[in-house]
Amino acid sequence: MKFLSLSLLSVSALSAFVQAGPLAAMDQLRIFRTSEPELRLIQYGEDTPPKWMTESDKEALFRAGVKYMDITDHRNAAASTFSSWTPYIPTKSKYQSEVTPFIGNLTTDGMVEHLTKLTSFRNRYYKSSYGAQSCRWLIKQIQGIAEGTDHVSVKEFKHKVKKKKKKDWDQFSIIARFEGSNKDLDNELVIVGAHQDSVNMWLPTYGRSPGADDDGSGTVTIIEAFRSLVENGFRPERPVEFHWYSGEEAGLLGSQAVSEAYQEEGRHVVAMLQNDMTGYIGDNGEVIGIVTDHVDEKLTDFLKNLVDNYADIPYTLTKCGYACSDHASWRKLGYPSAFTIESAFDDSNHYIHTGGDTIDKLSFDHMKEFSKVAIGFAVELSHLRD
Ligand SMILES: *[C@@H]1O[C@H](CO)[C@@H](O)[C@H](O)[C@H]1NC(C)=O
Ligand SMILES: [Zn+2]
């Protein structure tokens, strides 16, 4: 509440400030910060220049339904221009006999158990104490699955830099990794992702936000895919990772940090698949929504083939706008990314970002269809093909 009243005092100063443009704003930022609330740099369109705004203006934008990336700490992020490496994306599935047993082992039991606990945290807001607790619980479940293996590791990707800026936050992202068997492909990577945070758009820090669908559903969908792969001895050729991002709802913060770190390390991401909202069946029948805007076209075509091969329901093509989930962070850096969602975007769950985003509105069998596609994605793309 405190920062809200502070920022109200500065509204007129701020609007003049924002109109001066981002470069002028950056020059003055240090002076401005000493007496005024912190400003965030928000990008909400591919061709629209980003704008500086207060945290409360940013929240108002979110409530208005505008999707954005908070690029305050990622101002120079862009695709590498010096890399000559280009990933090979297949057009057709080829490893049905390897994929089928993993899919056959999927159940909804773990998903029910995990989602029940996940939604019991007051919220999973990235910088609330609840969000910090929920990520600690979540990593324990994932570590429990990987326990006893020698080629699967689970680690925290911290967003809190020790004793550094107070704008860092406690909810870490989680990265689970299968090592590849082909050491020549060690620097390559296939990623399946979801976001672990939730938000109540009216009262982010304290408000109740079960986030059952957004994105508890994607979170448990990929845990179940991960579980089946681990328990049934998946040994990929190139490394495969499962990511649970922090801070998606605040402008793709976790995934921007992870993707930028990977780019700095020179890693070659072959493909990334985001699962954000997989539990709600829209009014127009049970389908898998495949997002077609702001995604990699070839990978998205391959995703259609994966749904045809491995899911028991058809896909529908849909659009979700700029920066609508974490795949956008990878795409921005030039990595192929794609996005599966519960239905056509217009048909999706309207209770998200409120206390009403609860389990009773969801179908676990529907989520399981997305686990199948995630397994197909991980296995098919983990192979070296020519
Ligand atoms: C899944 O696979 C595990 C490990 O192979 C096995 O113990 C379990 O019984 C399987 N469950 C189902 C439902 O197939
Ligand atoms: Zn959301």
Automatic annotation (TrEMBL):
<dbReference type="InterPro" id="IPR045175">
    <property type="entry name" value="M28_fam"/>
</dbReference>
<dbReference type="InterPro" id="IPR007484">
    <property type="entry name" value="Peptidase_M28"/>
</dbReference>
<keyword id="KW-0031">Aminopeptidase</keyword>
<feature type="signal peptide">
    <location>
        <begin position="1"/>
        <end position="20"/>
    </location>
</feature>
<dbReference type="GO" id="GO:0008235">
    <property type="term" value="F:metalloexopeptidase activity"/>
</dbReference>
<keyword id="KW-0862">Zinc</keyword>
<protein>
    <recommendedName>
        <fullName>Peptide hydrolase</fullName>
        <ecNumber>3.4.-.-</ecNumber>
    </recommendedName>
</protein>
<dbReference type="Pfam" id="PF04389">
    <property type="entry name" value="Peptidase_M28"/>
</dbReference>
<keyword id="KW-0479">Metal-binding</keyword>
<feature type="domain" description="Peptidase M28">
    <location>
        <begin position="174"/>
        <end position="376"/>
    </location>
</feature>
<dbReference type="GO" id="GO:0006508">
    <property type="term" value="P:proteolysis"/>
</dbReference>
<dbReference type="GO" id="GO:0004177">
    <property type="term" value="F:aminopeptidase activity"/>
</dbReference>
<keyword id="KW-0378">Hydrolase</keyword>
<comment type="similarity">
    <text>Belongs to the peptidase M28 family. M28E subfamily.</text>
</comment>
<dbReference type="GO" id="GO:0046872">
    <property type="term" value="F:metal ion binding"/>
</dbReference>
<keyword id="KW-0732">Signal</keyword>
<keyword id="KW-0645">Protease</keyword>
